[in-house]
Amino acid sequence: MRFLIASLTLAACALMGSTTVQAEETAPAASMKPTYIIKTSKGEIALELDAEKAPGTVLNFDTYVTDGFYNGTIFHRVIPNFMIQGGGFTPDEKQKKDGLRSPVVNEWRNGLKNVRGSIAMARIGRRPDSATAQFFINLKDNTTLDKPNDGAAYCVFGTVTDGMEVVDEIAAVPTIAKGAFGGREKANPVEPVLIETITVVTPLDTEAAKARQTIAAEEIAKAEQEAKEAAKKAAMAEVEDFVAAKEKELGAKREVTDSGLISIVMKPGTGTVKPTAKDKATVHYTGTFLDGKEFDSSRRPGREPFEVNLSGGVIQGWLEGLKLMTEGERRLFIIPPALGYGEAGAGGSIPPNSWLVFDVEMLKIN
Questions:
Q1: pLDDT at residue 14, as a whole number
Q2: For every residue of 254-294, which 3-state class applies, written as one string?
Q3: Which DSSP helix (H) or strand (E) runs through 88?
Q4: Coil/strand/helix, residue 354
Q5: What is the pTM of this model?
Q6: Which of 21-25, 218-222, 268-272 has the lowest mean pLDDT?
Q7: Contact 331, 324 (CB under 8 A)
Q8: For all residues of the chain together, what is the average pLDDT?
């Protein structure tokens, strides 16, 4: 009986052979966990991204992929036991600018961590929202990148699901320092490691990602505001403790201007005239943070007293504080960020939003 059924089935198939239509392959459904293949000159790396937690970042990356921006770029920065970075330069060591988009908002508070195999956005230090196309893959758990040391951490937006052996092979290539990449670190591959293509496997649900991005933007704004308020509150508590301790140490009371400058007289002056904006003043000074760490001083060996033009050229806290002093006076300035270097900070020596302490002695009013 089984043989008869089988024969009939084969016969039916034979009769239908000329009209049978093969089923078309079904395209994968759009997802908030899109997947991609990075084809490199060393092999393939599979990625899964998370548009639920980093919607704007994933939308940004997906746009670069679909535009073909990454094709033909290189991994230009390779640091063993740290990360490999690419997506921004071509093999001739030129930055790829054609097709470069505006920076993306840093979604670093999304809970994703810079662990081995995670993919994150590269950006400029002290500029949290400066990421464009370049990305990096972590070679180990880089916990320091999860800390907001310059106002923000580094945003992770996905993970390597296959091909970490390829990532490790890229990490092992010989490197040298190449001036074309603007740095002195020995991190640039001797021979280019090419990103041949990045292709979509499972497409991103762009509409859902955009909707999630709107919600995430509100969450980011709220979190940033709360963080600023908390930091300001903590800073003010630290300032109050510092000033109270100095008042006790010096046996003098603070003076506070309308703008928020705090000063304490350390030694009374011998003169009676205070400088105006038309004058110059010759001073000795030492600048520290609230924790006592010194960042500058005219009292260091080989340095000379500093002449200040009170019409400008120095921070506002100095201009206000010096006009309170007479010749021979020594005064402590506790300067809030708004009268110092503000949210920008000053180079690598003074972080953003720093309170500054200056021990200033008025030597001469010119």
A1: 41
A2: CEECCCCCEEEEEECCCCCCCCCCCCEEEEEEEEECCCCCE
A3: strand 83-89
A4: coil
A5: 0.73
A6: 21-25
A7: yes
A8: 92
Q: Characterize 131-143 residue by residue with b for buried, 16 or more Cβ atoms within 10 angstroms of its Cβ, and e for exposed.
A: bbbbbbbbbeebe
Phi, psi of 169 (to 5 degrees): -65, -40
> Would you state the structure tokens that stand for residue 153, as one six-digit string?
């951490």
Q: CATH 2.40.100.10 occupies which residues in the chain?
A: 35-223
**Which phi and psi angles does 350 have, rounded to 5°?**
-125, 110
Would you give the distance in Å from CA 26 to the centre of its chain? 41
The dihedral formed by the CA atoms of 215, 217, 220 and 226, expressed in degrees to the nearest 10: -80
CA 98/CA 87 separation, integer angstroms = 13
Q: In the chain, list all ranges with CATH 3.10.50.40.
A: 252-365
7 φ, ψ to 5°?
A: -65, -45
Q: Contact at 8 Å (CB) between 139 and 83?
A: yes
Reported CATH class of domain 252-365: alpha beta
Q: With 90 as the cut, is the pLDDT of residue 352 above it?
A: no
Query: Rounded to whole angstroms, how far apart are CA atoms 37 and 48?
Result: 9
Q: What percent of the chain has pLDDT over 90?
A: 85
Domain spanning 35-223, CATH architecture? Beta Barrel (2.40)
Catalytic residue positions? 285, 295-296, 315, 341, 358
The DSSP symbol for 346 reads B
| Largest interatomic CA distance in the chain | 122
Neighbouring-strand partners of residue 286: 297, 359
Beta-carbon contacts of residue 131 (< 8 Å; ≥ 6 apart): 57, 60, 103, 104, 106, 121, 122, 123, 155
